[in-house]
Amino acid sequence: MNDLLSSLRRPERIGPDAMLLPGFALEEAESLIKQIMLIAREAPFRRLHTPGGRALSAEMTNCGILGWHSDRAGYRYESSDPLSGKPWPVMPPLFRRLAQRAAQHAGHTGFDPQACLINRYATGARMGLHQDRDEEALDAPIVSVSLGVPAKFLFGGMHRSDLTQSFTLEHGDVVVWGGASRLFYHGVAPIKAAMHSLTGALRYNLTFRRIRHAIRPMPKVDLPS
Ligand code: MD3
Ligand code: FE
Protein backbone atom coordinates (compact mmCIF):
# COMPACT_ATOMS: atom_id res chain seq x y z
CA MET A 1 0.00 0.00 0.00
CA ASN A 2 2.61 2.50 1.20
CA ASP A 3 4.81 1.27 -1.61
CA LEU A 4 2.11 2.17 -4.12
CA LEU A 5 1.67 5.64 -2.62
CA SER A 6 5.37 6.50 -2.48
CA SER A 7 5.81 5.43 -6.07
CA LEU A 8 3.23 8.08 -6.96
CA ARG A 9 5.18 10.87 -5.20
CA ARG A 10 8.14 12.02 -7.27
CA PRO A 11 11.57 13.15 -6.09
CA GLU A 12 11.14 16.80 -5.19
CA ARG A 13 13.47 19.70 -4.47
CA ILE A 14 12.10 21.12 -1.19
CA GLY A 15 14.79 23.75 -0.58
CA PRO A 16 18.16 24.98 -1.81
CA ASP A 17 20.08 21.73 -2.32
CA ALA A 18 17.46 19.71 -0.38
CA MET A 19 15.92 16.68 -2.10
CA LEU A 20 13.00 14.56 -0.90
CA LEU A 21 13.30 11.01 -2.29
CA PRO A 22 9.94 9.31 -1.61
CA GLY A 23 10.25 5.61 -0.81
CA PHE A 24 14.00 5.53 -1.44
CA ALA A 25 14.55 3.23 1.59
CA LEU A 26 11.43 1.06 1.22
CA GLU A 27 13.22 -2.08 0.09
CA GLU A 28 15.52 -2.16 3.09
CA ALA A 29 13.03 -0.70 5.60
CA GLU A 30 12.34 -3.98 7.39
CA SER A 31 16.07 -4.72 7.68
CA LEU A 32 16.74 -1.19 8.94
CA ILE A 33 14.15 -1.66 11.70
CA LYS A 34 15.68 -5.01 12.73
CA GLN A 35 19.10 -3.32 12.93
CA ILE A 36 17.64 -0.51 15.06
CA MET A 37 16.43 -3.18 17.55
CA LEU A 38 19.95 -4.69 17.72
CA ILE A 39 21.54 -1.26 18.20
CA ALA A 40 19.07 -0.47 21.00
CA ARG A 41 20.09 -3.63 22.89
CA GLU A 42 23.63 -2.21 23.14
CA ALA A 43 22.77 1.49 23.43
CA PRO A 44 19.17 1.81 24.67
CA PHE A 45 16.91 4.66 23.59
CA ARG A 46 16.94 7.38 26.21
CA ARG A 47 15.32 10.71 26.88
CA LEU A 48 17.99 13.43 26.63
CA HIS A 49 17.80 16.87 28.24
CA THR A 50 18.73 20.23 26.79
CA PRO A 51 21.54 22.18 28.48
CA GLY A 52 18.70 24.25 29.99
CA GLY A 53 17.27 21.10 31.60
CA ARG A 54 14.20 20.45 29.42
CA ALA A 55 13.50 16.84 28.39
CA LEU A 56 13.33 16.16 24.66
CA SER A 57 10.18 14.23 23.76
CA ALA A 58 11.77 11.98 21.13
CA GLU A 59 14.02 9.26 22.56
CA MET A 60 17.45 8.85 21.03
CA THR A 61 20.38 6.56 20.50
CA ASN A 62 23.25 6.43 17.99
CA CYS A 63 25.51 4.18 16.01
CA GLY A 64 28.80 4.99 14.31
CA ILE A 65 32.16 6.31 15.50
CA LEU A 66 30.45 9.37 17.00
CA GLY A 67 27.05 9.93 18.58
CA TRP A 68 25.06 13.03 19.44
CA HIS A 69 24.44 13.70 23.12
CA SER A 70 22.92 16.47 25.19
CA ASP A 71 22.88 17.23 28.89
CA ARG A 72 23.61 20.09 31.34
CA ALA A 73 27.13 20.30 29.84
CA GLY A 74 25.83 21.09 26.34
CA TYR A 75 25.09 19.61 22.92
CA ARG A 76 28.00 17.61 21.47
CA TYR A 77 29.23 14.49 19.71
CA GLU A 78 30.81 11.78 21.86
CA SER A 79 32.80 8.71 20.77
CA SER A 80 31.35 6.64 23.63
CA ASP A 81 27.84 6.26 24.97
CA PRO A 82 27.74 8.30 28.21
CA LEU A 83 25.23 5.73 29.63
CA SER A 84 27.60 2.78 29.39
CA GLY A 85 31.01 4.31 28.75
CA LYS A 86 31.33 1.93 25.78
CA PRO A 87 31.82 2.97 22.14
CA TRP A 88 28.56 3.49 20.24
CA PRO A 89 27.38 0.40 18.30
CA VAL A 90 29.04 -0.05 14.92
CA MET A 91 27.13 1.52 12.03
CA PRO A 92 25.69 -1.42 10.08
CA PRO A 93 27.05 -1.56 6.50
CA LEU A 94 23.43 -1.47 5.31
CA PHE A 95 23.00 1.95 6.98
CA ARG A 96 26.21 3.35 5.56
CA ARG A 97 25.54 2.10 2.05
CA LEU A 98 21.99 3.49 2.05
CA ALA A 99 23.21 6.93 3.22
CA GLN A 100 25.97 6.96 0.59
CA ARG A 101 23.59 5.88 -2.17
CA ALA A 102 21.01 8.55 -1.22
CA ALA A 103 23.63 11.32 -1.03
CA GLN A 104 25.03 10.25 -4.39
CA HIS A 105 21.52 10.22 -5.85
CA ALA A 106 21.04 13.83 -4.70
CA GLY A 107 24.37 14.91 -6.21
CA HIS A 108 26.71 14.70 -3.17
CA THR A 109 29.66 12.51 -4.10
CA GLY A 110 31.84 10.83 -1.50
CA PHE A 111 29.57 11.23 1.55
CA ASP A 112 30.91 9.06 4.36
CA PRO A 113 28.85 9.41 7.56
CA GLN A 114 30.53 9.24 10.98
CA ALA A 115 27.34 9.27 13.05
CA CYS A 116 23.80 7.99 12.76
CA LEU A 117 21.45 9.59 15.27
CA ILE A 118 18.32 7.48 15.75
CA ASN A 119 15.20 9.30 16.96
CA ARG A 120 12.19 7.34 18.23
CA TYR A 121 8.85 9.14 18.43
CA ALA A 122 5.84 7.83 20.35
CA THR A 123 2.40 9.36 19.79
CA GLY A 124 2.51 13.06 20.70
CA ALA A 125 6.31 13.33 20.59
CA ARG A 126 7.64 16.29 18.63
CA MET A 127 10.82 18.19 17.84
CA GLY A 128 10.82 21.96 18.14
CA LEU A 129 12.22 24.21 15.44
CA HIS A 130 16.04 24.02 15.55
CA GLN A 131 19.20 24.16 13.44
CA ASP A 132 21.69 21.30 13.29
CA ARG A 133 25.00 23.03 13.89
CA ASP A 134 26.92 20.82 16.29
CA GLU A 135 28.88 19.40 13.34
CA GLU A 136 32.16 20.89 12.08
CA ALA A 137 31.76 19.52 8.55
CA LEU A 138 28.93 21.81 7.46
CA ASP A 139 29.88 21.20 3.82
CA ALA A 140 28.73 17.57 4.14
CA PRO A 141 25.02 16.86 3.66
CA ILE A 142 22.74 15.22 6.22
CA VAL A 143 20.72 12.24 5.04
CA SER A 144 17.49 11.47 6.89
CA VAL A 145 15.43 8.28 6.67
CA SER A 146 11.88 8.04 8.02
CA LEU A 147 10.37 4.73 9.20
CA GLY A 148 7.02 3.77 10.70
CA VAL A 149 4.12 6.16 11.20
CA PRO A 150 4.16 9.42 9.22
CA ALA A 151 5.25 12.83 10.51
CA LYS A 152 4.48 16.39 9.55
CA PHE A 153 7.89 17.92 9.00
CA LEU A 154 8.35 21.70 9.19
CA PHE A 155 11.03 23.38 7.13
CA GLY A 156 11.86 27.08 7.44
CA GLY A 157 14.89 29.17 6.54
CA MET A 158 18.08 30.60 8.03
CA HIS A 159 16.17 32.47 10.75
CA ARG A 160 13.86 31.02 13.38
CA SER A 161 11.22 33.57 12.41
CA ASP A 162 11.21 32.57 8.72
CA LEU A 163 7.95 31.10 7.42
CA THR A 164 7.85 27.31 7.40
CA GLN A 165 6.63 24.95 4.72
CA SER A 166 5.36 21.53 5.77
CA PHE A 167 5.86 18.13 4.23
CA THR A 168 4.65 14.69 5.22
CA LEU A 169 7.50 12.25 5.76
CA GLU A 170 6.28 8.68 5.23
CA HIS A 171 7.76 5.26 5.93
CA GLY A 172 10.72 4.75 3.59
CA ASP A 173 11.17 8.40 2.64
CA VAL A 174 14.69 9.79 2.46
CA VAL A 175 15.70 13.46 2.47
CA VAL A 176 19.17 14.77 1.62
CA TRP A 177 20.01 18.22 3.02
CA GLY A 178 23.03 20.03 1.69
CA GLY A 179 24.21 23.47 0.68
CA ALA A 180 22.22 26.34 2.17
CA SER A 181 19.45 24.02 3.47
CA ARG A 182 21.97 22.38 5.76
CA LEU A 183 21.54 25.23 8.28
CA PHE A 184 17.81 25.84 7.80
CA TYR A 185 15.50 25.68 10.80
CA HIS A 186 13.35 22.55 10.90
CA GLY A 187 11.16 20.56 13.26
CA VAL A 188 8.57 17.83 13.61
CA ALA A 189 4.91 18.45 14.61
CA PRO A 190 3.46 16.21 17.35
CA ILE A 191 3.10 12.66 15.98
CA LYS A 192 -0.53 11.69 15.46
CA ALA A 193 -1.92 8.40 16.76
CA ALA A 194 -1.50 5.88 13.94
CA MET A 195 -0.36 2.31 13.30
CA HIS A 196 2.29 0.89 11.05
CA SER A 197 2.65 -2.85 10.49
CA LEU A 198 6.43 -2.80 11.19
CA THR A 199 6.63 -0.33 14.10
CA GLY A 200 3.20 -0.16 15.77
CA ALA A 201 2.50 3.42 16.85
CA LEU A 202 6.16 4.47 16.63
CA ARG A 203 8.12 6.55 14.18
CA TYR A 204 11.88 6.24 13.75
CA ASN A 205 14.12 8.74 12.02
CA LEU A 206 17.74 8.06 11.13
CA THR A 207 20.00 11.02 10.41
CA PHE A 208 23.40 10.31 8.90
CA ARG A 209 25.99 12.95 9.63
CA ARG A 210 29.59 13.80 8.99
CA ILE A 211 31.00 15.63 12.02
CA ARG A 212 34.69 16.15 11.33
CA HIS A 213 36.41 16.95 8.07
CA ALA A 214 38.54 14.30 6.44
CA ILE A 215 42.19 14.78 7.37
CA ARG A 216 43.90 16.57 4.50
CA PRO A 217 47.19 14.95 3.49
CA MET A 218 50.25 17.18 4.08
CA PRO A 219 51.18 18.90 0.84
CA LYS A 220 54.36 17.48 -0.67
CA VAL A 221 57.11 20.05 -1.03
CA ASP A 222 60.17 19.69 -3.18
CA LEU A 223 63.33 20.36 -1.26
CA PRO A 224 66.45 21.49 -3.18
CA SER A 225 68.80 18.48 -3.60
C1 MD3 B 1 17.26 19.98 7.67
N1 MD3 B 1 15.27 15.09 13.00
O1 MD3 B 1 17.59 14.71 14.27
S1 MD3 B 1 14.61 14.66 9.90
C2 MD3 B 1 17.35 15.87 13.88
O2 MD3 B 1 12.34 13.63 11.89
C3 MD3 B 1 16.06 16.13 13.21
O3 MD3 B 1 13.62 13.17 13.56
C4 MD3 B 1 13.95 15.21 12.48
O4 MD3 B 1 15.79 17.24 12.88
C5 MD3 B 1 13.25 13.90 12.64
O5 MD3 B 1 18.13 16.81 14.01
C6 MD3 B 1 13.90 15.71 11.10
C7 MD3 B 1 14.93 15.85 8.69
C8 MD3 B 1 16.13 16.72 8.87
C9 MD3 B 1 17.24 16.29 9.55
C10 MD3 B 1 18.35 17.09 9.62
C11 MD3 B 1 18.37 18.33 8.99
C12 MD3 B 1 16.13 17.93 8.26
C13 MD3 B 1 17.24 18.77 8.30
C14 MD3 B 1 19.50 19.17 9.01
C15 MD3 B 1 19.49 20.36 8.35
C16 MD3 B 1 18.37 20.78 7.69
FE1 FE C 1 17.58 18.50 13.06
Please provide a brief summary of the model.
The chain has three helices and 13 strands. It is of the alpha+beta class.
Task: Give a description of the structure.
GO terms for molecular function: broad specificity oxidative DNA demethylase activity; ferrous iron binding; oxidative RNA demethylase activity. Substrate binds at residues 68, 75-77, 134, 160. This protein is an alpha+beta fold and 225 residues long. It has one domain (2-209): Alpha-ketoglutarate-dependent dioxygenase AlkB-like (Jelly Rolls, Sandwich). Helices cover 15% and strands 29% of the residues. It contains 3 helices and 13 strands; from the N terminus they run H-E-E-H-E-E-E-H-E-E-E-E-E-E-E-E. The model has no long low-confidence stretch (mean pLDDT 96). The structure holds N-(carboxycarbonyl)-S-(naphthalen-2-ylmethyl)-L-cysteine and fe (iii) ion (FE). Fe (iii) ion binds next to loops. Residues 130, 132, 186 line the site of fe (iii) ion.
List keywords for this structure.
225 residues, alpha+beta, Jelly Rolls, 7-stranded antiparallel β-sheet, 3 helices, 13 strands, 15% helix, globular, binds N-(carboxycarbonyl)-S-(naphthalen-2-ylmethyl)-L-cysteine, binds fe (iii) ion
